[in-house]
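2024-03-11 09:14:02 DEBUG pipeline.ingest accepted 1 chain
2024-03-11 09:14:02 DEBUG pipeline.ingest length=297
2024-03-11 09:14:03 DEBUG pipeline.predict start
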Amino acid sequence: MQVLPFPPRLPHQPFPCSTRLSSALLKATVLELVVLTGHVLLYPTGIAGERRPTPRPAGPPTGTAPAGTSALPAEGNERPPVVLLHGFIDNRSVFVLLRRTLARHGRRHLESLNYSPLTCDIRTAAELLGRHVEEICARTGHHEVDIVGHSLGGLIARYYVQRLGGDQRVRTLVTLGTPHGGTAVAPLASAHPIVRQMRTGSAPIEELRRPAPGCRTRFVSFWSELDRVIVPAEAACIDHPDLDALNVRVSGIGHLALPVHPTVATAVRQALESGESATGTAGTSGAEGDSGTGGAA
């Protein structure tokens, strides 16, 4: 597997591996603090939910057409909406930069959803996500959406897709630092029920290990070896025999930087675009992941 370089690779220097790792971890930690500071400043702007555009006029149900005609995609060949789902104790402000990147490259329908920090169950949050997706499809005239989820947001979206029939609506699910295999970190935060559900061996995590034959959604999971929220870091990979999953390793950044780093944003955009051809790569120059059924990085 090739690695997304953050920052670009430097000429080889004869330092011990541990020294290079310590240096990379230090840089990643500094970047995490910078991202955290910026996000604290932006957080108030994302507390309120997004304004919803005016619904489209009522017409035939999506995917159907009058007798003697063929159904056409909403507004010609327009790409499906992208739903952005934040992580634990966060809000839609975390996606400001990613949203801007996607909008610049022709994504007209971008929906950043907030769920309450009081949400105590992944299953309940997944059901609520399903209702939001149905509303978005009805409003935009699209039959499918793409979803990008950071951390807990990716886990909620995967539960919706894999356990609640959301694969009928979700074409591609991109996750950023999501604990697909559970995480052993944050014991003090385990007082919150939904944090306990993110831990290794929890009931929702075990439910996601169950068979999912015929799941139609394509998964792309971005993970970082310097992610100190997902422990072990490889737990952010999807490893399931029934899922069309691609795991993409990024290097040199931590958990908080994943949804805001410009190179990751570009890779996410290209991953969504590559879903149309299902080539099995993340679509970014110099970066590949392990593709195929349940390929883990």
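2024-03-11 09:14:41 DEBUG pipeline.report Confidence is low (pLDDT under 50) at residues 5-16, 56-73, 277-288, 291-297.
2024-03-11 09:14:41 DEBUG pipeline.predict end
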